[in-house]
Amino acid sequence: MGNFKNAVISFLAPLPSIIFYLTFLHQFKTETSSLSPLWLWCSNHPIILANVFFFFNVNVLFWVIGTIQCSHWMIDLYWTVIPVLLVHYYGTHPYGFTDQWRSTMVILLTWLWSIRLTHSYFRREKWQWGAREDWRFFDLRAQYGKHWWWASFFAVYVSQQVFLIGICLPMYAIHSVEKQWNVWDVLATLVCILGIVIAYYADTQLHKFVTTNNTLKQLGSPAILTLETGLWQYSRHPNYFGEQLWWWGLALFGWNVGHGWTFVGALVNSLTLAYVTILVERRMLKQEERADAYKMYQKTTSVWIPWFKFSARETTKDKTT
Fold first, then answer.
1. How many Å apart are CA 132 and CA 214, to the nearest integer?
2. Quick check: helix, strand or coil at residue 36?
């Protein structure tokens, strides 16, 4: 019953913004010469309007729902949905100018990225809606204690607004400039696709590793201590590397239309993933049964960018110094 309830909540949650925006588009098309001050403002400020939607519909509404349910699970799910909503928002906003090829390609790529990440999310959560919240939120809940009810508004939601709106700015850029499709768009497309493919296979290999270990645990057999096969043989976090490629490829689209400043979103994403990498590896090292094996894995395997294993000689030298 709880699974169905959370599914319904998820589908209903973004409706206030969607209904308001569709109403605005209808008014713009039917009353262009006599727009009210509200609709005129909406037509002249696409980025500010996107932030208004995010603040009230995500920050406030999602926070209220999460506080009532004592679990801020929904923002994790909507990480896969909000970029899709934003790319369609920028693509249909009356303020925009664009090359149809570039717009169509970025929309298709965003859908492909979203489907990949949504599938990974539900596969990891065993196809449950809201079964648990992100482990980082769980840790923060314990850290803030009785103050978490209000601190979560800033730590979980306001921070996500800055991050998500910022990282999706290339979607605005490509829908604000009319420039013909060129070779840089082809390169950006290839980078995005490569990132999606790498992230998909990395997540699939990680899921298989976790599933195998769960089976071994049920059978009373020793677990596999470290995932060192497939892409994980060449990178300790190939899923993060693939995700970064996707966002940097998207930023390349923005740069190509003269909005190089949109790289800031991809840069912040990379810096954030660097911090998350540190947190993840600390958690691994806290597991006594895996600590020694993971330390060796750290010494012989690249952090993000896939590369060949470091030589045993280098590892031995590092251990003796």
1. 18
2. coil
Burial of 11 (0-12, 13-18, 19+ CB in 10 A): exposed
The 8-class DSSP code of residue 80 comes to T
Nearest to 138 by CA among 314, 283, 3: 283
Number of H helices, E strands in the chain: 17, 0
pLDDT at 321: 41
Helix axes 82-92, 100-124, angle to 10 degrees: 160
DSSP state of 124: H
* DSSP H helical ranges for 54-99: 61-69, 74-78, 82-92
What is the predicted pLDDT for the residue at 320? 42
Q: Cβ(195)–Cβ(244) under 8 Å? A: yes
Distance CA 140, CA 152 (A): 8
The pLDDT value recorded for residue 31 is 78
Residue 218: predicted pLDDT: 92
Give residue 319's pLDDT: 46
Q: Which residue has the tokens 């932030």?
A: 51
| Rounded CA separation 219/214 (Å) | 9
Q: For the chain, report the end-to-end CA distance as a whole number of angstroms.
A: 58
Find, among 144, 127, 114, the residue nearest to 246 by Cα: 114
- pLDDT for the residue 29: 87
**Residues of the chain below pLDDT 50:** 316, 318-321
Residue 172 parent element (H or E): helix 169-174
